Amino acid sequence: MTHEISASRRRFLQVGATAAAVALINPLAAKPGGGSGGTPVRATLKLGESVTGRTVPSGLVGLSFETLQMHDTRYFSASNEALIGLLRRLNPAGVLRIGGNSSDFSAWSGYTGALPPMPQLPNAVYKRPYMVTPEQLANLAGFLDATGWRLVFGVNLRRGSPEMAAELAEAVQRAVGDRLQAIQIGNEPSLYKHADGSAFSYDEYMALWRKTAGAIRQRAHVPIAGPDTSNEIDWVLKFARDTDDIVALTHHYYRGGAPAPTTTVAQMLAGDPGFISQAEQVAKVAAAKKLPFLLTEANSYWGGGKLGVSNTFASALWSGDFTLACAQAGVDGINIHSGTLSVLEASLNKNVATAPNGANLKQRLDAISGRYTPIAGDVGQGWYPRPLYYGLLLAQQFGGARFVSAELAANGANLTAYAADRNGQRLIALFNKDLQRDVTVRMELGAPASRLRLWRLEADSIDAIHDVRLAGNEVAGNGDWSPRHEETVAVDGSHAQVRLPRGSAALAFVEA
């Protein structure tokens, strides 16, 4: 998993004595400060009349899983109707990434050549190498067809062989056909170590990558993406410079490490403007090469996430805000890392045997699920969407819309706002990440309107882990959902006002 990325520069301006945050097109987040909890902060949001920003890709929100997750052949299968429903609810045009740390301990079952030895964990729940089989790939193809999603698939670079990687890439393409968006070679190569503990250099990685990519291309005509790095943005920029035959630039993101004492709800909700600046830098390079820039693995905290942070309602506010901030910066897709606890822990060189213990269904599903996974559960027990899922679902509503220029004066509140236009209808997302103060946002909509339809994203508390609601309704364990409570907000000409309780978010649809 990746390590925290240090900020390189601030993306927001502090204006005047009130420290109001103001931005054009890009989101603004003012840091929370003092003030009375009973008096709402008065903020203003002014939208431009014209649509000048980038279009949000329809495939913005996707999910990422470990290769080892395929060990249960029912998991990614057309028969897993409930999980299919949850993915289709999240995004009917998403991308599934299969890879992670376990991809560098995986092997193609049809390969008959020699492989380097793979170290075993003591009393391992899963034995290495993690075999990828024809049955797994056939079931995966049916799963992709049922969801309508595309696939990014990672092959072993660190402990495999170029010939085995080539055979696996060919088998994946043969199984899933044109649903294959890209093959990736290796996972987080910037963290590879030699036997003596020294780190791989970029040049050493590229030599190994070129050898494997060459073997793949000799065997099959498949799209290849990379470098799938952790925190080394410079490796992404060098990779873009040094390769001319790839289909996407890929990278990972985590806010920080789960074991760190600084890993708190407050840190998660503070945002990460330094990374957003770096994402903008890579996105510009990718755009110049006419390539998408994808975060093929992302979540709150590496190390599997932190209970009390990564699984709380705060993660819903983080995921919605982070996803839209990345989209504005030029990121074309974000795959949130997911899966069962035993698989995710095995990918971190830990052995955890789980059992569905708990007083109710959600608690039993929590017991077998990764700490930061947006969907809890497994094939045998069922599923439910966690808080993180709801923030992603809100952000994905912007898919296909084009960002609108905006100026936000947050007046010291930890508030962010995003606006976009789709077929003449404006959408506005508001995230009040301030845990001390409510905010009243007065909006200039940029054009006359009749009303706003408002969906609120809310829970009973910022640390709630269950009973999250979007538009007054929970998403069912099979993905069924519809708005139960849409508020109507009056518009005076082209002005409207929305009160946003502390620790909540809202999505407004502007009606002409």
TrEMBL record:
PROSITE patterns: TAT. This is Uncharacterized protein. The lineage of its organism: Bacteria, Pseudomonadati, Pseudomonadota, Gammaproteobacteria, Lysobacterales.
